[in-house]
Amino acid sequence: MTLRLGVNIDHIATVRNARGAGYPDPVRAALVAAEAGADGITAHLREDRRHITDDDIARLSEQLTIPLNLEMAATEEMLAIALRHRPHAACIVPEKRDELTTEGGLDAAGLHNRLAPLVGALKNANIRVSLFIEPDARQIEAALRLGAPVVELHTGKYADLIGAARTEELRRLTDAAALAAKNGIEVHAGHGLTYDNVAAIAAIPQVRELNIGHFLIGEAMFVGLAEAVRQVRDAMDAAR
What we know:
It is a single chain. By secondary structure, this protein is α/β, with parallel strands linked by helices. The protein has helices spanning 10-19, 26-36, 54-63, 76-85, 112-124, 137-146, 156-160, 163-182, 198-202, 214-223, 225-239; strands at 4-8, 40-44, 68-72, 89-92, 128-133, 150-154, 186-190, 207-212. It has an eight-stranded parallel barrel with strand order 1-2-3-4-5-6-7-8, surrounded by seven helices. It starts with a strand and ends with a helix.
């Protein structure tokens, strides 16, 4: 089974916004990534618009020929934006104003009543719903109760750990992927993945898609975005 690669282009927008100029353009980056072998593009429209903007989402929706995965907080504002643009997918993520990047997974179990109407509305609009969660049985069971067809397992802890601790976190990810797939939920994974650590995650047989962003954008400064995408694609394929 081919493992799909979603390229997150948020931090192209971070660089653009540092100067308030119109470049570098995240939409151009998305098109380059698609040409280089990305299967989808991920963009997180944060409530504070710190990187991706509403205009970026509109232009991505118009110009992409591969699926757009909109990462969004569980708010009415973001739901309205998703329903207006109808991306291929919407991944509901936790969001804090003071965080540098997404920290940990969504508490799907604790937020069931808040999430249920959002999940329902997105599904009714034929938008594939994903929940970004920790590799935990309680969260997978919550995703099942909510009717979410996809979970994205948070790999940030795995990426940060070393030695026996990383091995244990990999076991948790592997077990969670198996549990989700057994219950009919499609499994994705992402956060903190690089050339050096992606192989073990790509080798988990139930994982269907990886989302990688910050590392690719950083590596692009040295080898170019197209080459960075091709190299991570090769690493994923070799592991599979």
